[in-house]
Amino acid sequence: MLCWRRNWHRYRIDSMKILFLTNLYPPHYIGGYEQLCMDVANGLSAKGHDCHILTSTYGVGKRAIEGQVFRLLELEGDFQGNRHSFSRSDKIRLSNEAILAEMIKTVAPDIIFAWSMRRFSRSLLFLAEKSPAKVVYYVTDNWLLDHYRPTRQNLRKYIQSYRYLLCRPKLRHVICSSEHMKHEMIENRIPLDHASVVHNGVDLEPYLNIQRKDVQNDLRILYAGRLVSEKGAHTLLQAFISFVERPVAAKLHLTIVGGGEEDYIEELKAISRQAGIENIVRFTGNVSREDLVEYFASHDIYVFPSIWQEPFSLTLIMALASEIPVVGTLTGGSKEILRDMHNCLAFEPGDSSGLADKLQILVDDADLSKTLARQGRADSLSYSLPKMIDKVEEVLQQVTKDNKS
Question: Which of 62, 345, 352, 404 is most buried, with most CB under 10 Å away?
Fold first, then answer.
């Protein structure tokens, strides 16, 4: 049985006890989703709410308590698709259930904020819904699909949670990160017509304060994101190869920021070598958010080549706030941010030739480039982190008020 000291605080009348339930939490994370969870938790704490985070031991390898962050749960496999044996997963599930039950008993939260549950048993959701707390789901990718109905891929998870084989999460309170995400869930027969939509937010200040670092006769193109095939970095690389062959006066550079699947990264590097451009293509690996600001400041064009139905990109908001011209695809939630010839130039997913043509337009028309960049910065103000936190707080407080009425 777990033991930890409770820290009592003097609350505002409308303050809430919020227990975040999430698979990963910084500084141990994979992408922007986990960083956003930390931003929201910190933001709500700064507004006077008592936030606890229950997450996995990912990145630390053993149970650890760091202030209000409880790294106590164990993942049922990794994020490359590898899973534990049936018996091992069953032990993990039972242990995680006991930890969550003890955490609920000790913290007595008003809200359990289910942020991301990949590699956790769905039984944790039912345990949360049986508690006195109100459960609010935050949906900014497809993790909920895996917990709502059985598929060939998650059938074992359903069998292991045999007590809830015929049950589904009630989903009374749900926040989606975009209209696209909400509609995608509804199209997959998840009843979220009642869900609120709160767009993801970014701390814009570092990007709004950027002083652009123009280098005469250089054209520096930037990609920043996870390096997986659905993000489309290969489309950008193919476009860049053809763009190098065009009569462009400037010296060209391509910077690819981010980590991801090793095989895919090696494939990208091999394409660069075969085209003989490896000396002007730089792979940085993962960088901190602070360093990412500098990359936006020192580059001339940002390319967002996503192929899949992007839920709602944080990096795209950062780029717009940086006042860097953007060339991107309008997939998924991205079309709620980007508008062709308004704040970006758009091209079809996977169309490297079309992307090269858009790059050429920006090179040839400096006035258009500046106009799109300025409008992008203006539009980014709608997606600030404080605005997001205010909207999330409003939803959570309404949930608690409904509970008392």
Answer: 345
Distance from the Cα of residue 88 to its chain's centroid: 29
Q: Are 46 and 392 in contact (CB under 8 A)?
A: no
Nearest Cα neighbor of 358 from 335, 340, 374, 331 is 340
| Residue ranges making up the domain that contains 249 | 205-382
Single pTM value for the model: 0.88
What CATH number should be reported for the domain holding residue 317? 3.40.50.2000
Q: Which two tokens stand for residue 150?
A: 């059985």
Per the CB < 8 A criterion, the answer to whether 50 and 15 are in contact is: yes
Given pLDDT bands bounded at 50, 70 and 90, which one contains residue 236?
Answer: very high
**Residue 8 CB coordination number (10 Å):** 7
Task: Note whether 389 and 331 are same-domain residues.
Answer: no
User: Phi and psi at residue 148, in whole multiples of 5°?
Assistant: -95, -40
pLDDT of 254 reads 98
The whole-angstrom separation of Cα 24 and Cα 402 is: 30
Sign of CA dihedral 55, 57, 63, 67: negative
CA–CA separation, 319 and 301 (whole Å): 9
**How many Cβ atoms sit within 10 Å of the Cβ of residue 317?**
26
Element (H, E) at 386: helix 385-404
The pLDDT of residue 88 is 82
Would you say residue 6 has pLDDT above 60? Answer: no
Same domain, 376 and 398: no
- Find the length of the chain: 405
> Is the predicted pLDDT of residue 13 greater than 90, yes or no?
no
- Please answer whether residues 261 and 286 qualify as being in contact, where contact means their C-beta atoms are separated by less than 8 angstroms: no
What is the distance between the alpha carbons of residues 19 and 133, in angstroms, rounded to a whole number? 9
> How confident is the model at residue 157, as a pLDDT?
60
CA 359 to each of CA 213, 214, 365, 372: distance values in angstroms, whole numbers, following the listed order = 19, 17, 10, 13
Residues 6+ apart with CB under 8 A from 379: 320, 337, 343
Q: Identify whether the C-beta of residue 237 lies closer than 8 Å to the C-beta of residue 266.
A: no
Are residues 237 and 307 located together in one domain of the fold?
yes
Q: How confident is the model at residue 204 (pLDDT cuts 50, 70, 90)?
A: very high
User: 245, 219 in Cβ contact below 8 A?
Assistant: no
Structural domain includes residue 6: no
What integer best gives the mean pLDDT of the chain? Answer: 90
